From TrEMBL:
InterPro entries: GP_PDE_dom, PLC-like_Pdiesterase_TIM-brl. Residues 1-223 form the GP-PDE domain. This is Glycerophosphoryl diester phosphodiesterase. One of its GO terms (molecular function) is phosphoric diester hydrolase activity. It comes from Cycloclasticus pugetii. Signal peptide: none annotated. GO terms for biological process: lipid metabolic process.
């Protein structure tokens, strides 16, 4: 079972920062998950549409320029990273799951991938709750793996995953049942579960046969 560091290793360092990603690698994560929003045709690594919770700034991303956002402190003196920076620090070291958060992210990711060497794409998975963004990625980057993030309606998400020929479906811990795991596996989908932080939960997911878990503490997967 894969251990995927959630927003890097957000239980151990400020989420979605390069420090958090380095920490996840140090703690032995197989993959890291990050969230991206589109700002001025670039992809910035941040979870929310506002900067309040994770930086020393106030307000919405759209009310900032790219340079202003880059000047904010995202915790322990870290800047909000660009996706390009994350690609550089993860390539050859750890798999990268890019979660598309905002509108327009699929289009911008597509143009970034056009100039990205194949080596960066070998261990890359693009996921989203936003099916139009994923659709765009699939249409324009057939070689990139995609994962459907399932909310409450797993049936609907499985239908989307089938339509998009997705690699994986990502299910909330509270929604996982043996039935869903078997159903997804029967359709050839990997099952990744978020967010799994307690050792006992991680063990239970392994027993259930899921293929990977997202955790804020990527060192909590014991044998
Ligand atoms: O990709 C799994 C998980 O990150 C989805 O939820 O809100 O943490 O981005 P969220
Ligand atoms: Mg996420």
């Amino acid at each position: 079972m894969l251990m995927i560091g959630h927003r890097g290793a957000m239980g151990c360092a400020p989420e979605n920062t390069l420090l958090s990603i380095h920490k996840a690698i140090e703690l032995g994560a197989d993959w890291v998950e990050i969230d991206v929003h589109c700002v001025a045709d670039k992809l910035l690594v941040i979870h929310d549409e506002t900067v309040d919770r994770t930086t020393n700034g106030r307000g919405k991303l759209i009310d900032y320029s790219f340079e202003e956002l880059r000047a904010l402190d995202a915790g322990l003196g870290q800047r909000i990273p660009t996706l390009q920076e994350v690609l550089e620090v993860t390539v050859g070291k750890v798999g990268l799951n890019i979660e598309l958060k905002g509108l327009g992210t699929g289009k911008v990711l597509t143009s970034l991938l056009r100039n990205t060497p194949e080596t960066y794409k070998n261990k890359m998975l693009v996921s989203s709750f936003l099916m139009p963004e994923l659709e765009q990625v699939v249409r324009l980057n057939q070689h990139v793996k995609v994962g459907v993030l399932a909310g409450n309606n797993i049936n609907e998400s499985i239908a989307w995953a089938t339509k998009l020929k997705a690699f994986s479906i990502h299910i909330r811990l509270q929604k996982v049942t043996p039935k869903w795991v078997d159903r997804a596996h029967d359709l050839g989908l990997k099952v990744y579960v978020y967010t799994v932080n307690k050792v006992v939960q991680i063990r239970r997911m392994k027993e259930l046969g899921v293929d990977g878990v997202f955790s804020d503490y990527p060192n909590r997967l014991t044998s």
